[in-house]
Design a protein that fits this description.
Elements lengths: L21 H4 L10 H4 L12 H4 L3 H16 L11
Length: 85
Protein backbone atom coordinates (compact mmCIF):
# COMPACT_ATOMS: atom_id res chain seq x y z
CA UNK A 1 0.00 0.00 0.00
CA UNK A 2 1.62 3.31 -1.05
CA UNK A 3 2.01 6.10 1.44
CA UNK A 4 -0.27 9.10 1.03
CA UNK A 5 1.57 12.12 -0.23
CA UNK A 6 1.59 15.16 1.95
CA UNK A 7 -0.23 18.17 0.65
CA UNK A 8 2.75 20.45 1.29
CA UNK A 9 5.80 20.38 -0.91
CA UNK A 10 9.17 20.51 0.72
CA UNK A 11 11.30 23.39 -0.37
CA UNK A 12 14.99 22.85 -0.70
CA UNK A 13 17.14 25.37 1.02
CA UNK A 14 19.52 27.18 -1.28
CA UNK A 15 23.10 26.08 -0.81
CA UNK A 16 24.75 28.58 1.54
CA UNK A 17 27.76 30.41 0.21
CA UNK A 18 31.05 29.20 1.63
CA UNK A 19 32.44 31.66 4.12
CA UNK A 20 35.99 32.80 3.64
CA UNK A 21 38.43 33.45 6.45
CA UNK A 22 39.00 37.21 6.54
CA UNK A 23 42.55 36.75 7.80
CA UNK A 24 43.49 34.38 4.98
CA UNK A 25 41.85 36.61 2.37
CA UNK A 26 43.62 39.77 3.53
CA UNK A 27 47.20 39.03 4.55
CA UNK A 28 47.59 42.51 6.07
CA UNK A 29 45.13 41.70 8.85
CA UNK A 30 46.66 40.21 11.98
CA UNK A 31 45.02 38.77 15.07
CA UNK A 32 46.11 40.96 17.97
CA UNK A 33 44.75 41.04 21.51
CA UNK A 34 45.59 44.76 21.78
CA UNK A 35 42.91 45.64 19.20
CA UNK A 36 39.59 45.06 20.98
CA UNK A 37 37.60 46.74 18.19
CA UNK A 38 38.56 44.03 15.71
CA UNK A 39 37.93 41.26 18.27
CA UNK A 40 34.41 42.48 19.12
CA UNK A 41 33.26 41.12 15.76
CA UNK A 42 33.87 37.59 17.08
CA UNK A 43 31.95 38.00 20.36
CA UNK A 44 28.17 37.90 20.88
CA UNK A 45 26.24 40.42 22.95
CA UNK A 46 26.32 37.95 25.84
CA UNK A 47 30.11 37.68 25.68
CA UNK A 48 30.39 34.26 24.04
CA UNK A 49 33.00 33.57 21.36
CA UNK A 50 31.40 32.98 17.95
CA UNK A 51 32.22 29.52 16.53
CA UNK A 52 34.13 29.20 13.30
CA UNK A 53 31.23 27.66 11.38
CA UNK A 54 29.41 30.97 11.85
CA UNK A 55 32.31 33.42 11.70
CA UNK A 56 33.89 31.71 8.69
CA UNK A 57 37.41 31.62 10.10
CA UNK A 58 39.79 28.79 9.28
CA UNK A 59 40.85 26.56 12.17
CA UNK A 60 44.23 28.18 12.61
CA UNK A 61 42.89 31.73 12.77
CA UNK A 62 39.95 30.72 14.96
CA UNK A 63 42.42 29.38 17.54
CA UNK A 64 44.36 32.65 17.36
CA UNK A 65 41.16 34.69 17.74
CA UNK A 66 40.08 32.66 20.80
CA UNK A 67 43.46 33.07 22.41
CA UNK A 68 43.52 36.82 21.67
CA UNK A 69 40.03 37.29 23.12
CA UNK A 70 41.01 35.47 26.29
CA UNK A 71 44.19 37.54 26.62
CA UNK A 72 42.25 40.78 26.08
CA UNK A 73 39.75 39.74 28.75
CA UNK A 74 42.56 38.93 31.16
CA UNK A 75 44.04 42.44 30.96
CA UNK A 76 40.57 44.07 30.93
CA UNK A 77 40.46 45.26 27.32
CA UNK A 78 37.31 43.18 26.73
CA UNK A 79 34.56 42.30 29.23
CA UNK A 80 33.89 38.69 30.17
CA UNK A 81 30.15 39.29 29.84
CA UNK A 82 27.70 42.14 29.52
CA UNK A 83 26.32 43.39 32.81
CA UNK A 84 22.52 43.40 33.01
CA UNK A 85 22.02 45.89 35.81
Amino acid sequence: MPRPRSTRRRRRRPFPRKKVCRFCADKKLKVDYREPQSLKYFITERGKIIPRRISGNCAQHQRQVCKAIKQARQIALLPYSESTI
